[in-house]
Amino acid sequence: MADPIDFRINDYIKEYLESKGYSNTSNAFVRERQDRKEPVDKTKSEALNEKEKEREKYENIKEAMLKHLDNGDREEFFQLWSEHIPLEVFTNDASSKSLEFLIYTHFAVYYLRSTTSDKDEQKAQENMQVFRSYIESIRDRSISQTSDLLPLFALPYVPEPEKHAAFQDLFSDEWPTELRKKVWDFLEWVFVGRSLPSLVELLQNGERASHVLVQLNRENEELKYRTRESNRQLKHLTTDYYNLINITMELVESLQQAVLGKTIANDYIDNVCARLLLARAQESQRSSTTSPRPGMDDAYTEKLDFGKIKRDLVNISTSAREKALLLQALRWKLTKAKSDFQREKVLDSFIGCDLLGCRSDTEQRARIIQQLSSPIGSDAYYVKEEWARLINTLASLRKGRNYLSPNEALIICMQKAAVSEASDTLIKQHLLAALQKLSLRRSVQTIMINHNTIKWLFPLLNHTDRLSDYTLEYGVALLMNLCLRTNGRKKCVEIAEQAISVLSALLTHPNQETRPYVNSSLYSILTLKSIRKKAMELNLDSRLRSLIRVERTNSETKGQLEFLLNLLLKGGDQDGRQTSDNEQDNDDEDQDIMEADLDLADKLRATDRELSGETLIKEHYISQKSSFNKILRHTSANDSKSKSTVEPVLQRPTTPGQLRQATTTHAIDTLAQSLALGDMYNSQSDGFESTIFDNSPRKRPSVSDEAGISNDD
Description:
Elements: H1 4-19, H2 23-35, H3 42-71, H4 74-84, H5 87-92, H6 94-109, H7 121-137, H8 141-144, H9 174-192, H10 198-259, H11 266-289, E1 303-304, H12 306-314, H13 320-335, H14 340-352, H15 362-373, H16 378-395, H17 398-404, H18 408-420, H19 426-438, H20 442-450, H21 453-461, H22 469-483, H23 486-494, H24 496-506, H25 515-525, H26 529-537, H27 540-550, H28 555-569, H29 613-620, E2 622-624, H30 628-632, H31 656-677
Helix pairs in contact: 1-3, 3-4, 3-9, 6-7, 6-9, 10-11, 12-13, 12-15, 13-16, 13-29, 15-18, 16-17, 16-19, 18-19, 19-22, 21-22, 22-25, 25-28, 27-28
């Protein structure tokens, strides 16, 4: 007689066949079991009937929800959503929270779409207000740190979002179709999962366990790699520490001898200096010899043929379209990386092969500069745009900025290429954004100041009606970073009237994202007596008083304006009390920010006969197989994000991407507190100096310190 476990397996098979509609097969299976006198569990059939009824019920609910989604019936959709979607789904699955966010976004813009026949302005306003309330109710920070969703947080605050370039994809015909597919898959997963055949449940549990093991193995490999790197660095730091301790003890003994009147030989001082310089040289050599050659002997990097990649990027025989698609594919390896770890390894491989010739490959650098400087044709435009996007992406990452910053010729070329764009093209936008991000480096600031970037920015910002928000934000942010330098402010003296006029006009620009940079730029240049004198001639004081009188909604903005007015009216040149201009770059505040704008509005599409993205890379540029795919195939987004903070007085260079992320994170962090404390701005009663430029939860340094505006170039 067969084992009882065989009977259970046969029951599972019968249940599966009937659930899938294989009636004839199921009946034949039952007859054969009866011929063998095998007991058939009738309770299984009854349970199957109940499951079938339950499946039909949820199928009807799913169809109703999709219909409400298509018709823009927000209240009806979320009524069914709240009744039939279990709360534990959102607790255990982060992607479900993201989908709910996108659904709220869909209803918020439903009546704003040009394809919507039933226009209803009242419903559009109501849906947008509901979306705004939903955003304010979100307490899960992980959603706000999702790069794909972050730009949508600004949607309720942007007038006429359907005309805004940042939301172009949101108002496309494809977006609601893609969302509907996601909702269908989600509902299918939720509803069908409640009544799965036992055989399917067994298989799914097995696959789930296998996936967990693969995930744990991948994380274990990453941790091993990071541990090896950390141990190597710790070993070197320990060696340097003991060397420095020995040198310090020798210097203390020498100092004691000097106090007693004994002369210290110059040879001894030279020897100490030589030992210190030798330690630094050895550290530099270690970092270059012990690090794996990215893309060559690093187990975590694909074995790409970078020699072929570099040749194809600049070779005359490569068509412009092929170059553009290759540049796009390289950018996607950074913007579409599944984890921060993977993105970092890809970036290391780009830097290791000197992709842009910023280190020693001067021929590669010269050819790239030639492409950026060349006139634009039909296909050549895409090449130039893709170069601008790739450089902007590299500049978004700290290691990328370290790589690009020493290349003075490329930086000058980028500026000239941006200036040469007559209108606000995507090329200009991405080159300007890249320049702004690179301006976090003091050496790059010096290059830009010497090449009159400031004198280009003021005329550009004087025509805000011709600029996208992206150009405007990065333009004023770049201006602020350059005005923090003494030589930058001196450049403003030469065009003082234009500088005051442009910044004065920007004080009332509807884009609130620009306000911190405009205020900080004004603060910087008004520290010069000659500019304050010109500002008084142009009646800037009257304009500030007028703005202070009408500002009733934002106490922070009012405090900033009062502070600027106070600075304008008081006498004496402030530069004498400024700190040194020779301070170093602050790596702790130099963060990696991957913006959605890096891939936004990219119209380059491969035809049916062309390859693009990862397919293009794997087909033409993989030199040998590696363990990379095994390690990273199941890589998921890394939830561990470095904490973003906003410098309260904006006295250090920053980027709009960093400020946006820090502001969003801070707003979500303080939401619960603000509900209990009331208006957080009204609680700041220390006077206008305690509120000026305060966008950060950290304590603001004293205004009298004026630590960020530098003196010596």
